[in-house]
Amino acid sequence: MKRVVVTGIGVISPIGSGKAQFWEALLEGKSGIRPVASFDTSAFPVHIGAEVLDFQAERYLRRLAPASMGRASQLATAAARLALDDSGLDLAHADRRAVGTSIGTTSGEPQFVELYNDLRKAGNVEQAPAEIFPRYSCSSISVHVATEFDLRGPCLTIPTACAAGNHAIGQGFDLIRTGRVEAVLAGGADSFSRIPYMGFARLGAIAPQRCQPFDRNRKGMVPGEGAGMILLESLDRAVARGARIYAEVLGYGLSCDSHHMTASHPEGDGAIRAMQAALKDSGVGIEDIDYISAHGTGTPTNDRVESTAMCRLFGERARHVPMSSIKSMVGHTMGAASAIEAAACTLALDTGWIPPTINHEESDPDFDLDYVPNQSRQTRPQVVLNNAYAFGGNNASVCFRRYEGGVV
Amino acid sequence: MAGRVVVTGAGVISPIAAGYEEFEQALYRGESGSKPSDRFQGATVAEVSGFEAQRWLGNKGIRVLDRGARMLCVAAQMALANQGLAEDGGPEVGMVCGTMFGSVHSIVSFDWSGLTEGPSYVNPMEFPNTVINSASGQAAIRYHLRGMNSSICSGFASSLYALHYAAECLRFGRARVLLAGGAEELCDESLQGFLRTGMMSPSGCARPFGADRDGTVPGEGSAMWVVESEESAAGRGAAPWLEICGFGARQEAQGLQHYSPRAEAAGDAIHMALAASSIAPEQVACVVASAGGSREGDAMEAAALRSVFGSRMDTLPVFAPKAALGEALGASGAFAAMAAGLALRRGSLPPTAGCGPVEYGMRVSPEPQPVEGEFALVNAFGCDGNCAALVLRLWKN
Q: Which of A209, A241, B245, B329 is the most buried (most CB within 10 A)?
């Protein structure tokens, strides 16, 4: 069985793009949440979102034209470019059949649905361009990334809603661990869309002003967009080419609540089983975990369930394991969220710093946990868990470890 | 990681039959699902005509399920019932489902309602169906599947990816039993996709590898297998039917609408699947093809098969299920795999319905063809460069 490491990081996010800018913003506690710019929210009860305002796809695309794809594909391709550049992998001399693409998403390319319905409403549905149909399928995201970089290995999109990024990293990890490929660009991407915004607004799940995960007065989540891509490689290949290694992927765990399409199991049953499965797959115990990247959406229910799961699984140790939610800054970037959070986990292991949960004012009296309130902290974590939960009761946890050198 | 992964049960709802025994009978009778549509102004499609999910699912809880979710639930329920697992799947039973357009019709409808009535008037009950994988989430709730739950979208190859990922997860011990396959509904939006991109056969007949083929016929349905480790099957006294062997997948990297005449990715995917199964091309007893009547797509598959099997293609029997089932996108790989499993068990390939004169020397036939051997190759190649191949083996103790 091959060991798998992270050798490249690419992030396009509402708080900044590129590894350095993203990480600096996270440690500074910068928020990317602002009034929604991409559509009119006057008919909505809420008006904030986390968009990537300065995004210029043409800066990142060389082979494909930005206009030939949807925005999620653009965001994914841009993040993939950043991750590949960061890794120093020389694709020109690599066996491209041994490089795969595995990308998670919640909504695929929803803007083509919006365009289709806009034309339909205007009575011009027959003017919908033929290209939007194939471009709509979420498989287009990974195909566009593979095409831009000429990656010939297995290519898949994983539409498992808000746990999709972790699912995609998990599949990429398996592909390398079994020796089927040498490297996988893995991550997640979603674009800002009125469709989930309408749904979350209708559920009353969107916060009016800011995102305050785990705070006593938290009022909801904030929809966002972005992409996170990491380059996974087998450890022996990474060492052989002298790559910079950010962290090792130890394993992952999946579960399903089988309880409700939108609400988590009240006792965190599925979340606990996903974490347990990840620990088992990774060969580590709860005593080894020293940071948790929470799903932490900021809704009253999610955060309560997540804290409950943490307390049930970690027992006495729960209070001593810092658990923060970068969604307080980045917003909830849907299928990209756990991929962007995975990037944060690997940077935490690499730099020794953990990002905060911002907007923390008053602790929830029901839980006495360390949510890393407001200030980043140098804790030198060794083994971290990245948790993600989704509609359909999908839970996914990925475990990363600091890489200390050596091949065996 | 070790052990073999076996298929012990099956459920299917398709344009030619519901239930896998009925599916087998219809397939071997050479029935075709292509006919003028009930739902789409007479367009010729391969749809599940008069689909009434209540027949299998009852009325309870059905209102929230869209057509795709209903199809997946019907196939899943049949597969679980077939294996005595329908009451409570439990924490170690999960699902891996391939799909291409997922719940697109629900997504379009939800957006339409917000656009025309205002965002405050959308039905919150319909919001959960706007996640692409809502069908597998709904099935998990309905059948108490608390194990891992994943969906995969790789175009036409989606459900072969799903079958492989399920096998991989079982080998890693991520689940004890998985329902694996694919589901796809045919809806207004996907039908328009077929029409607008020129994939539809103007003559209303998919003729795989046919000399006068002129496009494909849109399909739909769901096929799900119960897959588990050999030990799990033995432990509960279930008789394995097939073994899921090696998988190969490649991407052509030429964009969304291009079949490569050189068939590099398709040929490589087959080579990879054979190598992963530790078998030589000579050991393959039959091929279940991806061909669905596309001029370029079928030519690409023929070239890929020739590149791997050489002159043996003159005698190797080939079945092209899309002649009967149409192009069911994310479900087509699962249909093809199910046909391959049936062929191995019966020692006979089903007839390819109405294929007419055939090109490239492909041995597709309007009559059943004998299958001599234990390995079948299943192909799923798409115009988006996603090429996958899976090897199945008839189970022998």
A: B329
pLDDT 10s digits, A148-171: 999 999 999 999 999 999 999 999
Which residue, of A219, A240, A261, is where some domain finishes? A240
Model confidence at B267: pLDDT above 80: yes
From the candidates B126, B150, B165, which should be mutated to test the interface with A, based on the most A CB atoms within 10 A? B150
Phi-psi region of A393 (alpha: psi -120 to 50; beta: other; left: phi over 0): left
B116-139 pLDDT per residue, tens: 999 999 999 999 999 999 999 999
Domain range summary for chain B, segments of one domain joined by +: 5-235, 246-394
CATH classification of B246-394, choosing from 3.40.50.12780, 3.20.20.30, 1.10.287.3510, 3.40.47.10?
Answer: 3.40.47.10
Query: B150 to chain A: which residues are within 8 Å by CB?
Result: 158, 160, 167, 254, 394
State whether residue A310 sits within 8 Å of chain B by CB.
no
- Mean pLDDT value of segment A313-339: 98
Q: Do B110 and A142 touch (CB under 8 A)?
A: no
Is residue A245 assigned to a domain? no
Q: A227 in a domain, yes or no?
A: yes
Name the active-site residue from A162, A211, A311, A399: A162
Domain B5-235 has CATH 3.40.47.10: yes
- Give A250-298 pLDDT, tens digit per residue: 999 999 998 898 888 999 999 999 999 999 999 999 999 999 999 999 9
Number of separate domains in chain A? 2
Q: Do domains B5-235 and B246-394 have the same CATH topology?
A: yes
